[in-house]
Amino acid sequence: MSFRDLPALVTRREEALTLLEALASGVDEREFAPFVTALTSPEDEQAVAIMRGSGNEMSMRVQLGALLSGAGLVTNEEVFQALDARRARAKGAMA
What we know:
mainly alpha; 5 helices
């Protein structure tokens, strides 16, 4: 999967699942920045700033998953599955 396969807008479950599939397949984290920006509310932005200031900053992948789940487009379980698949893929590439 590549950047060209990502949806232009995420308003439906199918589009959110496409993003999780991209996350799991190893699409570069920077490609998710526009989606994170679009989904981030002012309250989310404050929480991220607090976490960053305390040294607990989330990766772009984790932020995307939390935002998609918070918007009710996917479940936390689906997010965790995608993150686990990404982690397993990275371990396989290192072996």
